[in-house]
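Office hours follow-up: a student asked to see two folded examples consecutively, so here they are.
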Amino acid sequence: MARKNYAKPLGVKDSVIKGAFWRNFMELARTQVIPYQWEALNDRIPDAAPSHALQNFRIASGLEQGEFYGFVFQDSDVAKWLEAVAYSLATCPDAPLEKLADETIDLVVSAQQPDGYLNTYFIINGLEKRFTNLRDNHELYCLGHFIEAAVAYRQATGKDKLTKALCKYVDLVDATFGAEAGKKRGVPGHQEIELALVKLYQLTGDEKHLRLATYFINERGSRPFYFDGEHPNGSTGHTYHQSHLPVREQKVAIGHAVRALYMYAGMADVARETGDETLLSACSTLWEDVTRKQMYITGGVGATHHGEAFSFGYDLPNDTVYAETCASIALVFFAQRMFSINPKGEYMDVMERALYNGIISGMSADGKSFFYVNPLEVVPEACEKDRGKHHVKAARQKWFGCSCCPPNLARMLTSLGSYAYAKRGDTLYVNLFAGGSVDTVLDGGKIALDMETDYPHKETVTIKIREAFAGATLAVRMPAWCEGFQLTCKNIETCDIKDGYAYLRGVAEGEEISITLPMPVEMIHAHPSVRENAGKVAVQRGPVVYCLEEADNGRDLHRIFLTGDVDFATGYDADFFGGAVKIKAVGQRLSPEENDALYRKGLPQTQSEDAVLTWIPYYLWANRAVGEMTCWINYK
């Protein structure tokens, strides 16, 4: 039986972000990132890797002549850009941008084939090859991203041209794949369509879309392995695609991290919509493995660049890490869906960690360069000369040949309002302290509020209730990192603490709720099984993880250590890339030695000198001169 009364995220029109921290990122996405990426998709960024994504559509539609260029999934960059535009238009109407999006949709749809098929790689290179290599060729992945774009654009503008085109394509996929006689029992090599189909089902109410998503989830890992039939002479291994076992039998996160987390999000969606408890149990098991054994302190996931993959529990190297930006975004998708089924603070705590650290680190402060990989330790010379670290960069790139991360970041930032709040029954959940306003309808009636805060720079949050019905409940998240959470109000009937939330029952118009979230600087240590961090600490304030950069602390950051009780001082620097809290403390730096022998007898060097250290938020590293960086510091 489906879970009809689940915690639904608010739409971006119902939740307007106004707090300075996230509003600045959203404005950057709207005014800089979206226009910049439009130029990139049109190959107009000097000295950047070409995209050719829009040119592929012009060729596929017959408007121009030429050959397909790029990866087989190049179409998805256009889809994610359109989705980002849709969310931006929902909160900030922009007639020229909407016209540009409409023209792009016209171009995309003009390439569609009579039976609904829409993928430029095969339209240009030969339709007879379509659906013959699901493992590698990303057709269903690209379709999934276009479905998400179509749903978002319909919700933002009311226009359904792209939705209708994609529904026709889905009809073709549904007629081709399934457990019924005469259909192929195929599954996507790169998961994504599963969660997209659930969004389409929620928009259209067409049960066919939910059945198809359920089929793809249930069929995965079945034997005989479908991919072996496609590739009888060789296989890349089934763990890479998470097709090694039926999904309900998978106990640990393994293989390509983005594929895995998109699949887990789709599994949670199907479990919620169908009431499948066995599927939900599998999701819970995988959630525990990811967040308790395979997640970085920044919310990064995917420890190895070999296959951009999870490796094994507690294997979390800092300097060879992959931690793809897309993987942290996918972790947010998974967290939101797990919360929707079972509203617990632990899911939103992980979402917050990823958002404030491992996701926004993927973009420069000006929105014009990007990280694919998000390391926690960097020595630029090693990135250049150590082949095992070539994937790690000390500076962000203008664009990538495989450029999935930048448009993914754009759609994440422009849709932030849908992550800040959720509603279920008579309860409104406050998940992020992002500042702004809410106007929505719960089961008992309308509720409206305003939130004022300079979080995460400051500790205080004020919520003012503009409108509420009798019996309305406000559930305020109590972050796991916060000790001494304080909440004061005047006329609330009851306040119950459950699963990381303070449930305020009986909120009424005119109520003002004051929240204090103490943010002392904390030294964090890792589980002792994390070999790379033994004897080290990281520094965190509130939800923000900090790092040392060469620009502030000089070279050879590995020679720095902290000892005893450290007296941290904080200060807000309004001129540091839009404003940020910096942290200072006195540490120790190992002194130089006259002896130049590579190895020496006796105990390790103990002579050191005081060093005034400066930490900056991890998400702001690599915005100055190229240099060393580290999050984890030696501790004695």
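And the second, which I mentioned at the end of office hours:
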Amino acid sequence: MLKINKVKEIMTPKNKQTYKRFLASLKSENRGFITVIITGIINNIALTSTPFVMGIAIDNLLFLINQNGINNITFSEIVNVLRIPIMIMFCSTIIVGLASFIQEYTMARVSEDVTYTLRTSITRKFMKLPMRFFDTHQVGDIMSRSTSDLRKVSDFLVQNVNQLISSIVQIVLGLVMLFYINSLLTVIVLVLIIISSKVTRWISNKNKAYAEVSQKSLGELNSVIEEMYTGNMIVKAFNKQEASINKMIHYKRKYTKAFKKSRFVEFSIYPAIRILNQLSFIVSAGAGAVLVIQGSLSIGNIQAFLQYVSQISEPITTSSYVINAIQSALAAMERYFEIIDSEEEVREKIGLKVIRKPEGDISFENVKFGYSDDKILMHKVNFKAKRNQMVAIVGPTGAGKTTLVNLLMRFYELNDGRITFDGIDITDLSRSHLRKLFGMVLQDAWLFDGTIADNIAYGKRNATRKEIIQAAKAAQVDYFIRTLPQGYDTVIENAGNTISQGQQQLITIARVLLVNPSVVILDEATSSVDTRTELAVQKAMKKIQEGRTSFVIAHRLSTIVSADLILVMKDGDIIEHGTHEGLLKQKGFYENLYNSQFSH
């Protein structure tokens, strides 16, 4: 109880809340924890009985010696005196071994089950978070929270929970036996235990703060590492290897400094508590010797008493480490709960509609949007895209072109106004259903680890090989795939970096063609390819636009002169709209933009 109270005392209100939530997350493993607690109690009862039984054996042997003289004792008499104590201690040893095995095995299973549950929860949470969350959080920090932080929790469960349970039981049972043997000596020991508790509390509070800084620094370091490895080619192209190394060294030193400080505080508790424990042993031994000389205690009892002092001293030291581990685990859980508590996407409405035969009519009606309420990007956007029309979106960098198409697929929620698909407000459709109506080809073609066939069938997992090949042919990439050693079964690794950017783009177009969406979005799809590959991509793009409404974002205005509707954007709003010829006649922003690309 003393150790439990100490754990509660070191917790701030925030820690207590995290602690309660963490305990709530462990409810599914109640049976496992009950098993661990019961085996821990059995284990320590058997362990605690040994010194007392040994003390009885010593006293009985000394009584026999005093009664008969050491030279007059027969072997059978010694066996008769020690037989029962030795049998009890032997049985206790067997019980300790079995109980420890069950306890460790159960806790290892519970730890992995809990970690699996936490990882599953945070993964599901990521799927529900809005895009603005990922806009404001570094990838390395997210990875750190979902991997190393949860591993810290797992390590705490598998390494420290058993120790904590054993420590509490050993201390309680040890104190009971100490009071039973001699209450005066026990009071002296308790005073020293209280002092060690105060020291533990002070060091633990320090460790919590340093652990938080250490884990935050690790997240920053992971972000820098992810940035360096992902942008390795750019780093080398601009000869920034030395600068990159220096940047990484800076964050490594920052993490190392924080980690060392955290570790120093964590491990400094051992010598501090060890000194206090040894002091209590020395005081107990000295005072006990006096009591033995006075005849108040037997030699067997003082032997047992000193063993019990050692028995509760070791758990105090161990539990001090456990409390430090609790602080580190709580810091990790706080970061975990920050993700779990993050605001999710706006909930779907009740009674959602389904578009059975999508036409592809899109309408923006007084759309107002900003990434934050105090920074509105779009103030009043209005336009209509009719079925099978090609809508081109042009404008300078940062004009809001990509934002506009992101709003189409509800990656962000509007501040005001509405967007309709075939006359139905897109908020009346489920996000899943809405996004099935769209196909998107981005500027940066993204392929996943797996075969080329798997990548093409990413949006339609039940696609047949024939359907996959047809989509590849339509995307002008079938011939290239067949030149590969394993054809469609060629494994792509490292996000497709082993094949050219243009071929990656064609594969992503095949991916969209396979799902056969009603509306396609082409976001700078030809900006990263050479002229020859661009012809193939443009041919594939024409194929993908056939019979569909399409939104095309392009910097090269020559590729969208045939568009049915061109939206000219600047500073988030549509400032001009019309056909290519009509916009040139207006002698406005579009004409200047167009002429700037073709003037010499």
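Two things to take away from it. The radius of gyration is 36 Å. The first helix runs from residue 2 to 9.
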